Every structure is written in C-alpha cells, then in structure tokens.
Amino acid sequence: MLVYRRRGRGYRPSRDDSVSRGRSPVSRSADSAAASCYPPGRLVVVISGRGSNFVAIADAIEAGQLPATIELVVADRSSAAGLAEARRRQLPTAIVDYTSYEQRELFDQALAERIASANPDWVVLAGFMRILGCAVVERFAGRMLNIHPSLLPAYPGLNTHQRVIDDGGEKHGATVHLVTGELDGGPILGQVEVAVSPQDNALLLADRVLNQEHRLYPWVLKLLLEGRMVWTPGAGLALDGVPVPDGVLLGVEREAECQ
Ligand code: GRF
C-alpha cells in the first residue's frame, strides 16, 4: 500500500510506495514521476461549505506535491466558509447562488458557464451539496471529480456515517469518483478505508473519514495530473497502463509513520 508520511503541512509518498490495484497490491519502487515533468493542471474547485477538502488540495499544491493551479473556487452559496479561506490565499472566487435561480437548469447553466470561463482541466467537486443536471455533467464528462464519504457503491447519498453504524458495518471510508448523471455512481478512481469501532458515533467516524479524505483527494489528483491514472470510456480505468476496474486503494496511514 502506498503510505504517505506527514512532512510539514502536507503529505508525500514514502520511498517504499506501492498502491493496491483493484484489490490486489502491486509494488512500486520509488516516488512517482517528478511533478515538474508535467504542466500544472488547471483546477476549478466547487464547494458549498467549509471547504476542508479544498484546503487539503491547496496545501498539497503549496507544498509542491501536486502539479496544479487552482484557477477558481466557486460556491453555490455566499455562506460557504471555504470562500474565506480561498480569499485568504488570494485565489479567485465566485458565487453562483442557487437561490437566485428559479429553475434548476438555469442555475446549472450559470454554474457551468462560470466554471468553463476558468478553462479548467479538472473540475473538483469538494463538498458541493447540489445534484447537477445532465447538461453540466456531460459538458465536463471525464474531467469532473467528486469525493463521497463512503466506500461506494455502498452508501450513496446522505448520512453515510450513521447508516454504516446502524448497519453494524466494520469498514467505512471515502471514494473519489468521476461524476456522471447517476448520483454518486460514476467510475471509482480511488478509495481509502476507515475501520469502524464499537465506540463510534457518527461524529467521531465522520472526523476520521474526513482526515482520510484529505489524503485521498490530493493523491488521486496527483495520479491523474501526472498521467499515471487514466480513464477512458472504452477501456475504463488504468494505473500505469494496467487496468484497475475497481479503482485504487490508498493505504491507511500507520501511526508510527505519522511524524
Ligand atoms: C466531505 O465529507 C465530502 O466527502 C462530502 O462533503 C464533505 C465536505 O467537506 N462530499 P468539506 O466541505 O470539504 O470540508
């Protein structure tokens, strides 16, 4: 499994990195291709709330671990707390307020236009709490990502943490996937697992899952931006040229390596 060691504010792969392809681990010998070999990917990040995943991505960029630039942070409501953090970092921000549009299609169109105006390579939904219509999804097909707090295809939709606890689940986690017209149903790119303990409540579990989301999203983006992870409609997902139909699994960080 690929283990990320904390250094300073972000994470970087350890020397002995590897990833699980599908569900069978395959070793990889050294750090992935140098980020400097690739032109920075242009990201537009779309948020609705606190924006902690946006911050994790921005931190990874600032730490030189992710070859990307954030061209725009756009929110669907002015109350999104993540906007303040984006402004503090002097990133361009925009609000496309869903309450200003009587029809969902009009909101979708305005949001799509604003996103497109920043000419993104990747559209990164990070805690975006609206369901997008097909017109938007198709416009950015294959380059719009979302993060969801469950091990999809299990537990699409809301209240995932409580639902896992109610079901007596032992394993939970988060998924980064491509966005399609099906809610939380697009091709899975990467996942991270979190064990559920008998003492868990939804808040405790959400906190642990969120910490892992902050590792997972920059990691998947890095694989995409470095061209190691590729998804095509015909062939599906591949990592370093090898098919990985179920996505890749990010290893769980071990306590001893978190220094
Ligand atoms: C995360 O749990 C994410 O998986 C879900 O919404 C939450 C957003 O958190 N889609 P944040 O706004 O990134 O802090």
Features:
disordered C terminus; binds 5-O-phosphono-beta-D-ribofuranosylamine; three-stranded antiparallel beta sheet; disordered N terminus; 27% helix; 6 helices; ten-stranded mixed beta sheet; alpha/beta; globular; 259 residues
Question: Can you offer a commentary on this structure?
Answer:
This protein has 259 residues and is α/β, with parallel strands linked by helices. The chain is 27% helix and 28% strand. The chain is built from six helices and 15 strands. The strands form three sheets. It has a ten-stranded mixed beta sheet, sandwiched between helices. The protein has a three-stranded antiparallel beta sheet with strand order 12-13-14. A two-stranded antiparallel sheet has the order 1-2. Bound molecules: 5-O-phosphono-beta-D-ribofuranosylamine. 5-O-phosphono-beta-D-ribofuranosylamine binds next to helix 1, strand 9 and helix 6.
